Amino acid sequence: MLEIKKLRKNFGKKEVLKGIDITIKDGEIIGIIGPSGCGKSTFLRSINMLEKPTSGEIILDDNVIDEKDNLNDLRRHIGMVFQQFNLFNNMTVLDNITLAPVKQKLMKKDEAKKEAIKLLKKIDLEDKKDNYPRELSGGQRQRIAIIRALLMKPEIMLFDEPTSALDPEMIGEVTALMREIAKDGMTMLIVSHEMSFIKSFCTRVIFMDEGKIIEEGTSEDIFDHPKDSRVKTFLSKVKNI
């Protein structure tokens, strides 16, 4: 279980997160929506300390996380997938996937390669293991980034706009993989502007604006019966949901 208590984040004098409180149970799939600049990505990045919170608590399985902890260990438990893939262009697909678990001594090199190839087979990309990221499509690169995070065997996966850099066909490839991961009970937090995907996929949706959670509930609650006027206005401008 992940608990966020009174989470605040300032960049200089600008307060980006203004006291976030939320509890996420194991296996939940949380969609995070709201206007650009409302703090969604900062919220995700604060959870695994890519951004150091100004104040508040992040509690994973009853353990309070802070900057004094081993952050590599933290990020093994909380994996993250970024909008721009963050693959190393000078390394092959296989080396990209196996680098972290080998470097952090979670697996020996042969074991990591075996596990990586198993995951590549699952997404029909085993034949790309010796390719470089520049030789792949955007959808392929994002799926590689996802299984790279999975090889660390995290408890929670954070997705920050995982499909925004992709064309419609590639979006389908990535969301299909995310649905497969969900079948195994993975806890997920997803920031996305793909409203139809959030509505159909997430077990709970939170709407953020100006650094706060304005409303939360089931997908049906938020998309079909929103209560707050800001949520209603936002959704009224979104098509195809």
**Counting H and I runs of at least 4 residues, what is the number of helices?**
9
Tally the beta strands: 10
Residue fraction in strands: 25-35%
Mean pLDDT: 92
The major sheet is characterized as:
6 strands, mixed
Q: Uncertain regions: pLDDT < 50 for 5+ in a row? A: none
Shape: globular
N-to-C terminal Cα separation, in Å? 30 Å
Q: What radius of gyration results from the CA coordinates?
A: 18 Å
Strand order of the largest sheet: 6-7-8-3-9-10
In words, what does this structure look like?
The chain has 241 residues and is α/β, with parallel strands linked by helices. The protein has helices at 40-47, 71-77, 93-103, 109-122, 138-150, 168-183, 195-201, 219-224, 229-236, and strands at residues 2-11, 14-24, 29-33, 55-60, 63-65, 78-81, 156-160, 187-191, 204-209, 212-217. The chain has a six-stranded mixed beta sheet, sandwiched between helices. Strand 9 and strand 10 form a beta hairpin. It is globular and about 55 Å long. The two termini are 30 Å apart.
List keywords for this structure.
9 helices; 6-stranded mixed β-sheet; alpha/beta; 4-stranded antiparallel β-sheet; 241 residues
SSE layout and pairings?
Elements: E1 2-11, E2 14-24, E3 29-33, H1 40-47, E4 55-60, E5 63-65, H2 71-77, E6 78-81, H3 93-103, H4 109-122, H5 138-150, E7 156-160, H6 168-183, E8 187-191, H7 195-201, E9 204-209, E10 212-217, H8 219-224, H9 229-236
Parallel strand pairs: 3-8, 3-9, 6-7, 7-8
Antiparallel strand pairs: 1-2, 1-4, 4-5, 9-10
